[in-house]
């Protein structure tokens, strides 16, 4: 298989998979969801979902990928030839393309904010000014379409370079730098006067705020943040060498991803409280508050520029994995060249992204879809990032537990992980716990 590669080491895999996992899901989506659902309750349900559902599904996906060395469609087809399980793979490829379309748009915002900071147009931004700046920015159709195209183009460029060469190298250098900047931001946010109230919001749960919709969003966020349910981790697992430990790799990826998201909350909520801003501000939340924090810091514009640039890079490592799923499918199953696959998938994603661009201004229809009363963008985000990934994860559990069978899966998981003693726990999770929890959540949503 000429155009397939391998990660150069276990560390290379962990960083690339963590690169896929860590992205605007952690720094943009997690804080705004937490804010929307009243703070600490969401955080706790999310953390429970990461441990109970995320980790077992992550291990299952990597194992399916490594056992077959294939893209999601090919992997299911190889483990259960002539069955309909391929469909789960197809759904993953489709989800990859769909998520890429609006994920790249939000990622484009980070580039936009990088240039805004560079040009000094966020200097002195107050809490009342940043929402206006944001609105004007997202309403500019041509600028948004350009940023979307630019982001998909850069993603396509990296994916066209192949596995270890492109993705791995970029992640190795840039991810640690992002974490350092976040630590500096954390220091600033926590020492703002009035930050304490934000910490309370973030850490003291009010369980009366629990709701089925909140639980499904927390579960979906756990899958989304760990890049699960659509085969991204099957694809990345397919490039993992046989003598490396799947459970250890999965644990590292889950830990790094979760720490980053939780840390983003520790930056955003104290700062929101300090400036008296509403934590339930919806999807523009971090773009409203971050410029205000930077403005309160010495060398703020330099930190601001670096932050938005690196957030863009973190997003890039995620878009790369989304596109890689579609491309790996085109290469393996359709026998296309890497270049052609990138061109086709990238262009299609851009076109699908246009209605999302229009959701932020211009066309009323896309701003508020008839009957649903939400924007096209919000609809896409819920359908693909939350529902499709949850359903995908459910099927992956059933497949690993009952179809491929947990004993066969455990054999793959045990390779390179001779010291792993928790196979029985994993089996209970994928056979009973995860399917039951996911089904229960989807069911409660459906009957409401
Ligand atoms: N995990 C990424 C994030 O949190 C998003 C993503 C989802 C990437 C699904 C790949 C697959 O930003």
Short description:
The protein is mainly alpha-helical and 448 residues long.
Please provide a written account of the structure.
- The termini are far apart.
- α14 (300-332) crosses α15 (338-358).
- The chain has 19 helices and no strands.
- 54% of the residues are buried.
- The mean pLDDT is 91.
- It has a single domain, classed as Amino acid/polyamine transporter I (Up-down Bundle), CATH 1.20.1740.10.
- It is mainly alpha-helical and 448 residues long.
- The chain has helices at 10-21, 24-36, 40-68, 72-79, 86-118, 129-139, 141-160, 163-190, 195-203, 212-225, 232-237, 246-274, 285-295, 300-332, 338-358, 364-367, 376-403, 406-414, 423-447.
- The protein is globular, with a radius of gyration of 21 Å.
- It binds phenylalanine (PHE).
CATH architecture: Up-down Bundle
Dominant shape: globular
Q: How many β strands by DSSP?
A: 0
What's the main sheet like?
Answer: none
Along the chain, the helix and strand elements come as HHHHHHHHHHHHHHHHHHH
Q: How many angstroms separate the termini?
A: 49 Å
Here the CATH topology equals Amino acid/polyamine transporter I
Nearest-angstrom radius of gyration? 21 Å
How many separate helices? Answer: 19
The amount of beta strand, in percent, is under 5%
Q: Would you identify the regions where 5 or more consecutive residues have pLDDT less than 50?
A: none
User: Which hetero compounds are present in the coordinates?
Assistant: phenylalanine
| Mean of residue pLDDT values | 91
Task: Describe the secondary structure blueprint for this structure.
Elements: H1 10-21, H2 24-36, H3 40-68, H4 72-79, H5 86-118, H6 129-139, H7 141-160, H8 163-190, H9 195-203, H10 212-225, H11 232-237, H12 246-274, H13 285-295, H14 300-332, H15 338-358, H16 364-367, H17 376-403, H18 406-414, H19 423-447
Helix pairs in contact: 1-8, 1-12, 1-14, 2-10, 2-12, 3-4, 3-10, 3-12, 3-17, 3-18, 3-19, 4-5, 5-7, 5-14, 5-15, 5-17, 7-14, 7-15, 8-12, 8-14, 9-12, 10-17, 10-19, 13-14, 14-15, 15-17, 17-19, 18-19
The protein binds phenylalanine.
